[in-house]
TrEMBL record:
It comes from Azospirillum melinis. It comes from the Bacteria. This is Exopolysaccharide biosynthesis protein. InterPro entries: ExoD. Signal peptide: none annotated. The chain crosses the membrane at residues 48-65, 136-169, 175-196. Pfam families: ExoD. PANTHER family: EXOPOLYSACCHARIDE SYNTHESIS PROTEIN. Keywords: Membrane, Transmembrane, Transmembrane helix.
Length: 207
């Protein structure tokens, strides 16, 4: 069986198209003037959940965005738990237009980074798609609670964790997914323990 430089088999490559190539292909189909979120979700098909999670997690790294991002992340997370085919947002969100030029600029910046990451993140330890979708949705839904913890910079760790989960989900990388889910469990444990300690401290001070 033929192989390519990064060690993946030719057969594996025909079954899985890297996310960077999917995004690059969007530009060939994009309207000349503007696009909508609804158009993007339709074109991305089964990749739409992973792309949405990745983009929201990136936004969640910015200071002051935690509550909004945490709330928005619950929408695709719940729909993944319910095994929906693709995320569904309110019409007022999906119908918002933005220029194709901005889409081109975003993809031009993202593709080189994704291509470098795809040399180490690629299909391994493949798991049933529906089961993986439900598990990822459940874990992301749990992680959204951390975005509401009133601690400075508490948004960074869950945002990075969701980014890793999204990349693993997009590239069907079971190894990275297992590591990311373990990291998510650790984040949730630490957040729960921190909240419990804070509650106990307040209770002690008021007693």
């Amino acid at each position: 069986m033929a192989t390519i430089p990064n060690g993946r088999s030719e057969a594996a490559m025909t079954l899985h198209i890297p996310t960077s190539e999917v995004l690059r292909g969007l530009l060939d189909e994009a309207p000349a003037d503007c696009v909508t979120l609804g158009w993007l979700l339709e074109k991305l098909h089964k990749r739409s959940f992973g792309i949405v999670l990745l983009l929201l997690a990136l936004i969640g790294l910015a200071p002051g965005t935690s509550p909004v991002v945490g709330l928005l992340l619950t929408i695709p997370a719940i729909q993944m738990i319910l095994a929906r085919a693709s995320p569904v947002f309110p019409r007022m969100i999906t119908s918002r237009r933005f220029s194709t030029r901005r889409l081109v600029q975003l993809i031009d910046r993202a593709v080189p980074v994704l291509r470098r990451m795809e040399t180490v993140i690629h299909p391994r330890w493949k798991t049933p798609f529906d089961a993986t979708t439900r598990v990822v949705g459940l874990v992301v839904f749990a992680l959204t609670s951390v975005f509401f913890v009133p601690i400075p910079l508490s948004n960074i760790v869950p945002a990075v964790t969701i980014m890793l989960i999204a990349l693993a989900y997009l590239e069907e990388d079971g190894v990275l997914l297992a590591l990311s889910l373990t990291a998510a469990a650790t984040v949730l444990f630490v957040a729960t323990f921190t909240i419990w300690q804070s509650v106990e401290a307040v209770r002690f001070m008021t007693s």
